[in-house]
Input
Amino acid sequence: MNIHQYYPVDIVNGPGTRCTLFVAGCVHECPGCYNKSTWRLNSGLPFTIEMEEQLIADLTDTRIPRQGLSLSGGDPLHPANLADVGRLVRRVRRECAGKDIWMWTGYRLEELSTAQQQVVAHVNVLIDGKYIQDLRDPALLWRGSSNQVIHQLR
Output
């Protein structure tokens, strides 16, 4: 898996202070997307075990309490990202007690494959649906367009 950005301290992508990871790869290619640079799977930098260790250390660092992990992109549920994202969310569940996991995807919850559902099973909040430029609403919290749904899963 490749990533485009990692923010160890983020207050925009979900509630509270969070660690946020933007992954590469998106099949949706929504017109008006603000993050087009993340569409190609081979763009960005490889997500290494060292980066993963840093992310876990940041989530558990008590000097800057963080509420959880946010995963965006690109699309964390792109088929090529599932193995790495799945490993990461399972590890956060195991090692970062009390931290929540938020995920943004262009897929809708009801159309997820079995493999995607297995990853989402470890997620607290899923924001689903493609960005639709005609439904853009800057007043929406944590969503870009009104068709996108915030699902409280855990």
User: Anything to note?
Assistant: The CA atoms of residues 10 and 129 lie 23 Å apart. Residues 2-152 form a domain with the TIM Barrel fold (CATH 3.20.20.70).
